[in-house]
Design a protein that fits this description.
457 residues, 45% helix
C-alpha cells in the first residue's frame, strides 16, 4: 500500500511533465530517479505548480495553502534546484519549474557534494538516459532542436583571414547570436557549475579527462543557481577563460536553441554529452542545430588524421591506401568529390593515397577540426542551406509542442497560462510561424479565436 501511495505522488508529477512539449517517458528508471530527487510530497506539490513563471501568491492558490507556508515550500524546492527563483523586470519574485533537460536533471549534479546521494542519482540518470532510449529519443530525435552548436570563433576568424589573404569574395558571415563572446557579454550574470554529463560519468567510471568546472549558466538561471550554491558567479573575463580552457581540451560549445536570452552554454565532449552521443547513437542531426558552416579541405592536407581524432561526432574518416606501382608513376593529384551528403578529398602522399571523407549530414560545423589541423588545410565555408534559429524560448517551445501534438496542452493548461500575458506570448509565437506550422497549430487546437487571428494576418 505504501508503494502504491509513493507511486501515485510521482505519477502525478510525471503526468504533469508529459502534458508539455518536453516530457519524461514513464520507463522503469523514471520513478526511482524521481524518488532520488524529491520526496513523494514534493512531487505532488510540483505536479500542481504552474509551468510558466509564477508568483508566490499564484502558487498559494494552486496549492491551497497560506502564502507564508507556500513561500517556504517554494524556497526549499529552489534550494534543491527543482525550481528556479528569479526576479522579473518589475522587481517581483517569481519561480519557474524547469524542464528535466536542460533543467532539474542537470542541476542535481552541477555541484560536488551536497545532501543528495550523487552516486545513486548518477547511476539512475545513466540508466534513464544512456541505457534506456525513450527519453533521449523523444528529446533529441525531433524536428525542433533543444540545443544549438556555437562555432569556434578562432576557427571562424582563421577562415576569414585566409579568405582575405587569397582574395576570395566574402562568403563567410556570422551573426551576433552565433558568437559565444557576444552571448556572454550580453548575459548580465554568468555562473559556472560542475559539468553534469562528465560528473555523471565520473560516478560511473566512464568519464574522460576534460575539465569539470566549465558548465556556464546565464541570466536569471545563473542568479538562481548562485543564490542556492549550485554554481558560482564569474566575471566576463573568467567566463572567457573557461571557454578558452574548454577549447584547449577540444570541447564543443552548445547553447539552448534560441537567439535571445540563452540560459546556458555547455562545453561538451563527444564521449559524455547526451546530445553528441545521440547523434552517434541514432545517426541523425535532429538532436541539435548545427552552425551555419562546414569544413573544407585544401591540398595542404598531409593525412595526419588529427581532424578525425578530434571530431566529437566521428563525421570525419581517414584512410591511407597503399598505391600500386602504376599509381606511383602517375602524376600527383588532388580531387574533391561529393556523393549524397559525403564529401571526399583524395590526394597522393608518398606511397599512399589519402582519402578523407566528411559526412556533412552529421557535421556540427563547430570548427574544432580547423583548430586541430597543423597545416591549416581546413577552413570553414558557409552551408548552402540556411540554419533557422528560433528567436525566443517561447518560439522554440511552441514549435516543439506542434511537432509533438501537444500545443493544446500548452495553451489551455489553466495552471500554466492563466494570465493574459502568458497567453499572448504563446499566440504571438504562433503568429510568427511559417504558414505550414500555423496550419498545424490551427488543426491541433481547433480554436475559432486562433483561426480568426491567422486568417487576418
Amino acid at each position: 500500500m505504501g508503494h502504491h501511495t509513493i507511486k501515485n505522488g510521482y505519477q502525478s508529477f510525471a503526468d504533469r511533465l508529459n502534458l508539455l512539449p518536453q516530457g519524461a517517458p514513464q520507463t522503469e528508471a523514471l520513478f526511482p530517479l524521481l524518488r532520488a530527487l524529491v520526496s513523494e510530497k514534493e512531487a505532488e506539490i510540483l505536479s500542481l505548480l504552474p509551468v510558466r513563471p509564477f508568483s508566490v501568491e499564484k502558487a498559494a492558490k494552486a496549492l491551497k495553502k497560506p502564502v507564508t507556508e507556500t513561500e517556504k515550500i517554494l524556497t526549499d524546492l529552489a534550494s534543491k534546484a527543482m525550481l528556479l527563483d528569479v526576479t522579473d523586470p518589475a522587481g517581483n519574485r517569481q519561480f519557474i519549474l524547469p524542464p528535466p533537460m536542460a533543467g532539474f536533471f542537470e542541476f542535481s549534479l552541477m555541484r560536488m557534494g551536497g545532501q543528495r546521494d550523487q552516486k545513486q542519482i548518477s547511476a539512475l540518470l545513466y540508466e534513464y538516459l544512456n541505457v534506456e532510449e525513450d527519453f533521449v529519443r523523444e528529446l533529441f530525435v525531433t524536428n525542433t532542436k533543444l540545443g544549438r552548436i556555437l562555432v569556434n570563433e578562432k576557427a571562424y576568424e582563421q577562415s576569414k583571414d585566409k579568405e582575405q589573404d587569397e582574395n576570395i569574395p566574402h562568403e563567410l558571415h556570422i551573426l551576433d547570436y552565433e558568437r559565444t563572446s557576444h552571448i556572454l557579454k550580453s548575459a548580465g550574470t554568468i555562473a559556472v557549475g560542475t559539468c553534469y554529463c562528465r560528473h555523471k560519468m565520473l560516478h560511473m567510471g566512464k568519464n574522460c579527462d576534460a575539465p569539470l568546472d566549465v558548465c556556464l549558466t546565464l541570466g536569471n538561471t545563473a542568479k538562481s543557481l548562485i543564490k542556492y550554491g549550485h554554481a558560482r558567479e564569474l566575471t566576463l573575463s573568467e567566463a572567457m577563460d573557461a571557454i578558452e580552457l574548454s577549447q584547449e581540451h577540444h570541447l564543443v560549445q552548445i547553447g539552448e536553441n534560441e537567439q535571445k536570452d540563452m540560459p546556458f552554454i555547455c562545453n561538451c565532449c563527444g564521449c559524455c554529452c547526451e546530445a553528441l552521443l545521440a547523434i552517434k547513437r541514432f545517426g541523425t542531426l535532429n538532436s541539435i542545430n548545427t552552425t551555419s558552416f562546414l569544413p573544407q579541405v585544401s591540398d595542404n592536407c598531409i593525412g595526419c588524421g588529427k581532424c578525425a581524432k578530434i571530431c566529437p561526432v566521428d563525421c570525419i574518416q581517414l584512410e591511407k591506401i597503399p598505391l600500386t606501382e602504376t599509381e606511383l608513376s602517375e602524376p600527383n593529384d588532388f580531387t574533391v568529390t561529393k556523393q549524397e551528403s559525403k564529401r571526399t578529398i583524395s590526394k597522393k602522399q608518398g606511397k599512399y593515397r589519402i582519402r578523407l571523407t566528411i559526412d556533412e549530414s552529421v557535421c556540427l560545423g563547430c570548427g574544432l577540426c580547423v583548430q586541430a589541423c597543423p597545416t591549416q588545410a581546413i577552413t570553414l565555408r558557409q552551408r548552402e542551406n540556411t540554419i533557422i534559429t528560433p528567436v525566443t524560448a517561447s518560439h522554440r517551445i511552441v514549435l516543439a509542442a506542434i511537432d509533438k501534438g501537444r500545443l493544446a496542452n500548452l495553451i489551455f493548461d489553466n495552471q500554466a497560462f492563466a494570465s493574459h500575458r502568458a497567453m499572448a506570448a504563446i499566440l504571438g509565437a504562433i503568429l510568427k510561424l511559417p504558414p505550414a506550422k500555423q496550419l498545424l497549430a490551427k488543426e491541433q487546437i481547433r480554436s475559432h479565436y486562433l483561426a480568426n487571428l491567422l486568417d487576418k494576418k
